Amino acid sequence: ICGIMQHIEEAGIHSGDSACVLPPYMLDDDVRAEMIRITKLLALEIGIVGLLNMQFAFLDGVLYVLELNPRGSRTVPFVSKATGISWARMAARILIGEKLVDMNLPDDPVPPHVSVKAVKFPFARFDRISYFLGPEMRSTGEVMGIAEDFGEAFAKAQASVQAPLPLEGGVFISVNDPDKEKVLPIARELHSLGFTLWATGGTHARLTDEGIPSNRLFKVDEGRPNVVDQMKNGLVHMIINTPLGKESHYDERAVGKEAYHRGIPNITTLSGAWAAVKAITSSNGNGIHVRPLQDYIAEYNNVRL
Q1: pTM of the predicted structure, to 2 decimals
Q2: Closest C-alpha among 246, 244, 217 to residue 230
Q3: According to the model, what pLDDT value does residue 115 have?
Q4: Which one of 26, 110, 137, 266 is most buried, by most CB atoms within 10 A?
């Protein structure tokens, strides 16, 4: 097993558009063990020699196999840097007849550090495409953040795609009805960190009901002041926006375009919002530490060997 990466976005969003983390940050040991068992079983049954990529989904205690690709993928360089092992080289050696057992490889590499892959989107140049993630891949590049903990690694990766997470200022929140309950702990945490919250009507009302202070804004097609105005005024520094339905299309385009042109993080899933909150909390408490990649790898190899 070269490595197990966990997508930060939910299933249904293209793997190329999802940030991901190695090792998994929210996965029980028994689920990991079952994933490894299924992977080995299928690989041996199909007779794959070389690299393969598998995708799983986990929901309500049930593990689903989404797909198996008998090939290397663009995740191989990321996993190689995260674990310090050239997996493409190892696969090539196996393809020419060498044995896996002779390569002194770990059965399941779990580095002591955390690596996060984030993706770069072309929205600033192609502003007519949708800013919200789905099964169609829209990203055009990838970056990597690495640190001792998940929050700092995610913050580094986010900064590398030119949308650094704010440590203070204002956060705009506008979520669809199914997400209103789930966004409450996120909003409460942001408020406790000192952020000023801005929200559209329905979200503002729900936050108020829970005693979470926020300032109401109009939707873009409702009037002013709206979130685009407040971005231009320098009062909104991060966006959490999960609209639903065709009536949200106008807001989606206007908010996304302004955010990407100004380098403001525009988060469109609640799982991504939680990751951002963890990164902000980590950065506020510890700051950002820079170390050479070779130091992380040497540390891991000392532990492994």
Answers
A1: 0.79
A2: 217
A3: 94
A4: 266
